[in-house]
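Example record used in the benchmark description.
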Amino acid sequence: MTALETVLKELATKPDMVQDSALGPLAYRTVLAPPSPHAPPTKILGIPVPEPMRELWRHTSELRIADEPVYGQWGLVMVSPEECESQTLDYRKYRDRDAKPDDLIVGYFRGDSELVLLPRGTANRPDEVHIALPIDRRADWPVAAPSLAEFLSRFAESGEKWWFG
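Model output (structure tokens):
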């Protein structure tokens, strides 16, 4: 079993987390949508899709971690291949000053403008997960984790954006 499969197995059984707030109790859920009946793409927009992302899509077409469904202001969404293409095109259009032609946007944070980025350039480690910030320049974007499995595991464990701390 790969590290990513181990994380997904844990996420599939993760109970809802309930937190008291001024608005009353808020539930944060983890949801794995059923996988697509089609094989995950090897390329999106001509960009090779990293094997860990293809592995994720073999298990789920969309993954939501710490998703707050009532107000929609918190949670991580790892998108489907179709949404990856759409998000990547939007990223190229609206963040063109920092976008590189081999970047893939594979997720986003609800209620925020931060994007989960897999840079496919040769200067990066092949599995690194970066966070594309809405205002800061690319040189200031944090590396959130050295691998997709670690990124998902850490976010599931804390529900927080540790890369800012």
